[in-house]
Design goal:
Two copies of one chain form a homodimer.
Chain A: H1 8-27, E1 32-34, H2 41-45, H3 78-88, E2 95-97, H4 102-116, E3 131-136, H5 140-148, E4 152-159, E5 162-163, H6 165-174, E6 178-183, H7 197-204, E7 214-218, H8 237-243, E8 250-255, E9 267-270, H9 273-286, H10 292-302, H11 305-334, E10 340-342, E11 351-355, H12 360-369, E12 372-374, E13 391-394, H13 401-427
Parallel strand pairs in A: 1-12, 3-4, 3-6, 6-7, 7-8
Antiparallel strand pairs in A: 2-9, 4-5, 8-9, 10-11, 11-13
């Protein structure tokens, strides 16, 4: 029976029971963190071989003869470009290899647009108003970058197929101050949705009012599947934009942060020739080049996209039981109660939970009080403001499956309690 | 006898002889590059052990227990801070570890000052005019950053003791639009001069008209000595600024680019607590953190400052013969002719040569024609404009000592020829 259909007496009785359970749970002294998409130590072990693949006896030269120990090759070694292109589903000539952080590339793209403009357009710092569209729920660190640069963020609702493209088209094609949109197109953060072919094609076919509008296409989970037999696929945005006569409107980002080691991986940007030419001119001023030995380490270890696919299955083996632990508890405990909805993603790092309106903050606080840390409620919205106070991001990667089951038990308990309180307060007050 | 005192006939006779030598040299088909401060392959071999120091069997945790394979520790691991602090002669609490490129840190410092301002002051992009002082000759990549941000560059003459501090004080203490100065305080690029204690103290005691004035102290060659017995020392700018009541006026930079591997080293920033607090707030938006495994690799390999000193002696063994090869030829061939002056540095990567006025471009072109590439004439000045067309930067690191001797023979030949032409043109025209 849905909680909202229960009588006041039944709700109060249930609440008493759940309060007792909560008191007991609190007594257990849990200390679990489901707040960030951080791999577990066991998952990091999957990539340990990366530490052995090159040493002082190795030929430390790239395929084109470049000594990876010295200056040079600002754009990265050819085989690293090929590997990262394959991850993104594009071709190496569209790719520049950066350092260890794709977030850093995104920041730099916004920062340079702000200080110098894009392809001859007015620098954003000279304009009164700059806006970005932000599909919600979304990734807090995207929003943090645009907020830092004083860019107004406009939420756009997400669906299973991606952002609401009617709204996206309306803003992008009519408002010249809309300069960008943040996208996690595959296994989106936090919902795990993958943009449909139609969504990708509508992105490629945008007719932006602003010449310097760019899609910030953060392909963070391109090969991060949870299952062998059920995998999402996505169209290549770069070639779709080319086909649509819009080659310059997209910047694509990827990294091996959740493939090899977070912080010690390699990151890449993919874009059109015109965009890359401009970026190269600036990059040569900004850095002496990125770590080519680490690029070499990665390509020697993974070899090619097939090596990567085999590797990602090992990650999936670690991740799947954790996702299933959460989903099993949610299904068993919350189905049919009408107090929350969630998704069962096929990849990525998160489960997105939507509580009853006005309950997310209270649920997160109640979990915290009993030792389970969740991502801050609101974090998945621009300015940390979820207008419905409903969305909660669950990150199952760091704890063990057993800990995830424990944490989920507490989570559903808190969802039930907070929901009952909300119903009592609104319906029976 | 000085060339300028020779008769026209004698000069013409000498020119004929030198022309013949030049024609012969051209026939040799030399292909040597003295243009960049790039280590040779043999020099890179000195650091090969770095490739073996951590592997899959190693404990990949920092001294504080941080798993270096995962996210976290935005500022770098404690032992890396200590190592980089020791290189700069400061203490770890003043240090943030970055990625592989100190140039990238400098760029980011300018970029953030431009977009967001420093410690609450107006962002530079909102000001009509921003100026930087540029001790000359100096480092072209510094000048390239300030030029990219539209910052007006004002040359300040260098001496053996550092920049002309009367001029520096006059500008900095009186002109609010002067926001920075580029310094390579030790074994300066290209002259190899080291700032005297008085110079450092006068820097620390500046009373800038602009609250957001900063000294950009690029301590690139802090431990890059050529000799065991003759080494320059420099005062610690961070503590000198503290003592002078000016803790916030300096950003110091260093890297292991020319200690371990260029492009695969680690880089660091040192600054006051107030500066670091502001930088941390932005850095957390910009990146997921830097490569801690590479930090670990460096600290495990070098251990401490003593390990570094022993290591740098190996570099010196490679570099010294190359410097001496150049200096021997210059001394033997050009002394007393009055057509050039140069320095004999005790460290760093360069020899600075000052030709007769109006001769540098022609000398560089003449060398190029015979197969020896030098740094572009003018590169050591802002906007690539050496008003006297006199300074030439010689980078002896990449070729072998034998090649350096060959290249130097050609260089002095070109200096002689171009000087004679200049004298004939100006005195006997």
């Amino acid at each position: 029976m849905q909680y909202s259909e229960m009588s006041k007496e039944d709700l109060l009785a249930l609440k008493q029971e759940l309060d007792a359970q909560y008191a007991e749970a609190k007594g257990k002294g849990l200390k679990l963190d489901m707040s960030r998409g951080k791999p577990s130590a066991m998952q990091l072990d999957v990539s340990l071989g990366l530490m052995d693949v090159i040493n002082s006896s190795s030929r430390l030269a790239a395929s084109d003869g470049t000594d990876c120990r010295n200056y040079g090759m600002l754009e990265g070694i050819p085989e690293a470009k090929k590997l990262m292109a394959d991850i993104m589903g594009t071709t190496p000539e569209h790719v520049i290899i950066y350092g260890n952080s794709s977030l850093n590339i995104m920041y730099d793209q916004v920062s340079r647009a702000y200080s110098h403009g894009i392809l001859g357009n007015t620098p954003w710092c000279r304009l009164d108003k700059i806006k970005f569209l932000c599909p919600v729920p979304g990734y807090d660190r995207h929003f943090a970058i645009t907020e830092y640069f004083g860019i107004e963020m406009i939420p756009v609702p997400m669906s299973q197929d991606g952002p609401d493209m009617d709204i996206v088209e309306q803003y992008v094609n009519q408002d010249e101050s809309v300069k960008g949109i943040w996208c996690v197109p595959k296994y989106s953060n936090p919902q795990g949705f993958t943009y449909s072919d139609e969504t990708v094609r509508r992105f490629a076919a945008l007719k932006p009012a602003a010449k310097d509008f760019r899609i910030f296409w953060d392909n963070a989970y391109a090969i991060h599947h949870l299952y062998d037999d059920r995998q999402d696929e996505i169209l290549d945005i770069i070639s779709e934009c080319e086909k649509a006569g819009n080659p310059d409107i997209v910047f694509e980002f990827a990294s091996t942060s959740k493939i090899s080691f977070p912080g010690s991986g390699i990151a890449a940007l993919a874009a059109s020739a015109a965009n890359l030419d401009e970026i190269r001119r600036q990059l040569t001023l900004q850095t002496i080049g990125h770590d080519k030995l680490n690029q070499l380490r990665h390509v020697r270890y993974f070899q090619d996209i097939n090596g990567l696919k085999i590797h990602m299955k090992k990650h999936a083996q670690q991740m799947r039981p954790k996702f299933e632990a959460v989903l099993n508890v949610l299904d068993k405990e919350l189905s049919g109660l009408g107090i929350g909805s969630w998704n069962a993603p096929r990849g990525g790092y998160f489960i997105s939970f939507d509580a009853m309106e006005g309950c997310a903050k209270a649920i997160v606080a109640k979990c915290k009080e009993a030792g389970v840390t969740l991502t801050k409620a609101g974090a998945t919205f621009p300015y940390g403001n979820d207008p419905k106070d409903s969305n909660i991001r669950i990150a199952p990667s760091f704890p063990t499956p057993e800990e995830m089951a424990q944490a989920s038990d507490l989570f559903v308990l808190c969802v039930k309690l907070v929901s009952i309180e909300k119903i009592l307060e609104t319906k029976y007050a």
